[in-house]
Amino acid sequence: MNGVHDLGGMHGFGPVNPEPNEPVFRHDWERRVFGVAIAGFGGGHYNTDQFRHAIERMGAVEYLSSSYYEHWLSMLETLLIERGAITKQELDARREQLSREAK
Amino acid sequence: MVARAWVDPEYKARLLADGTKAIAELGFTGVQGEDMVVVENTDEVHNVVVCTLCSCYPWPTLGLPPVWYKAAPYRARVVRDPRGVLLEFGTRVSDDVEVRVWDSNAELRYLVLPQRPAGTDGWTEEQLAELVSRDAMVGTAIVPAQGAAS
Amino acid sequence: MAVVVTKDFVPELVRTGGSTRVHKAVAPRFRVGDHVLVRNIHPEHHTRLPRYARGKRGIVEHDHGVFVFPDTSAHEQGEKPQHVYSVRFTARELWGSEASERDTLRLDLWDDYLDLVV
Questions:
Q1: Is residue B149 part of a domain?
Q2: Looking at beta carbons, which residues of chain C come within 8 Å of B29?
Q3: Catalytic positions of B
Q4: What is the pLDDT of residue B150?
Q5: pLDDT means over runs of 10, chain C (118 residues)
Q6: Looking at the domain assignment, is residue C84 inside a domain?
Q7: Residue C89: its H or E element
Q8: Fewer CB atoms inside 10 Å of the end CB: C or N, chain B?
């Protein structure tokens, strides 16, 4: 699809700004998302092409304004619901519960 | 892998002919490294690798990619202005050298074999390996010449 | 059918990975040295054909062999295995006459993304 992920040749993103010696995961939740995503792949919930397409379907503004592992998290939410591993109700309920507990 | 290729011409030949097999000789196999291609820097060609569409990267050999590799600025710009991007990394490629960009849009994963730097005659494989950086294997850096021993 | 991944499953999974190479004899549409024109397609479905290459001319440098086709694989439409080629483009072909006259780019393109330039 002609999504914003198809970045080759675009102008306006500014300097690359490589950071030397960055950590592999900046936050613990990124490590968990990575693990769950690979487990999902290994367990046959989705293939690599479906994985990528789920991220491409995030929407341009969402894609550009979120971090890399937020893309993976979005993929998990999309695919695990679409493929019936969890329901949207379960996800929403858990999100609400966590946000109540965080207060 | 790089140091081995520098000291062992037969390994280097195997590496360039069938990257997957030669890299597996050193024990690196698996997820996001199942189909490997190694491209060699020479006096005529400087290679640099990107995945413009997402973040494809050879995990078994290089680990997980750095943020800059996965972010929009690199992915957007290196295919169109590789020399400008390389300058941000402090790497200047001479005008008489071809910059060859590899966009890993399929399932082949690419590794750059940097040139062995000057000033390393007689070095052991272990000593040479210490000089090789991840960035040199992505193509945004070179392995710098070593000064004369003091 | 999805399976539950347990800890002991993981090292083997990571070690072997999931190559999408298909070990089937599929006839290639192109040979090394062929001049090809990248199709000007704009599918709304998943594709690995970047916009910057569509409608551009290149040369087939290498045949990587047969792989799963992502455009169908992403949509439960089967593997449609076909050849993937390393195709060389000059910087000027992609980015215009102001681009470097020496630099080049390689993309890996499936049979279905290309047409022969006669």
A1: no
A2: 15-17
A3: 51, 54-56
A4: 46
A5: 82 90 97 98 98 98 98 97 98 98 98 96
A6: yes
A7: strand C82-90
A8: C
Structure tokens that stand for B22 in this block:
């030669």
Task: Number of A to C CB contacts under 8 A, please give it.
Answer: 59
Q: What is the pLDDT of residue C9?
A: 84
C11 belongs to a structural domain = no
For the residues B47-51, what does the mean pLDDT come to?
98
Give a yes or no: residue B146 inside a domain.
Answer: no
B30 → closest Cβ in C15, C67, C105: C15
Interface contact A9-C94, CB threshold 8 A: yes
Integer Cα distance of C71 and A53 in angstroms = 10
Specify the CATH number for the domain of residue B71.
3.90.330.10
The domain tally of chain C equals 1
Residue with tokens 């020399």: B83
Structural domain total, chain A: 1
Interface contact B84, partner A, CB < 8 A: no
Q: Is A14 inside any structural domain?
A: no
Chains with 3+ CB–CB pairs under 8 A to B are: A, C
* Residue A33: CA count within 13 A, CB half-sphere: 18
> What percent of chain A shows pLDDT beyond 70?
100
Burial A60-88 (b: 16+ CB within 10 A, else e): eeebeeeebbbbbbbbbebbbeeeeeeee
Q: How far apart are CA C58 and CA C86, in angstroms?
A: 10
Domain limits at C37? 19-116
B118 is a domain residue: yes
Residue C2, in any domain of the structure: no
**Which residues form the domain of A46?**
28-102
On whether residue B143 sits in a domain, the answer given is no
Taking CB atoms and an 8 Å limit, are B35 and C64 in contact across chains?
yes
Q: What is the pLDDT of residues B91-148, one digit of tens each?
A: 999 999 999 999 999 999 999 999 999 999 999 999 999 999 999 999 999 999 998 6
Read off the DSSP letter of residue C19: -
Q: Which of B68, B72, B80 has its CB closest to that of A19? A: B68
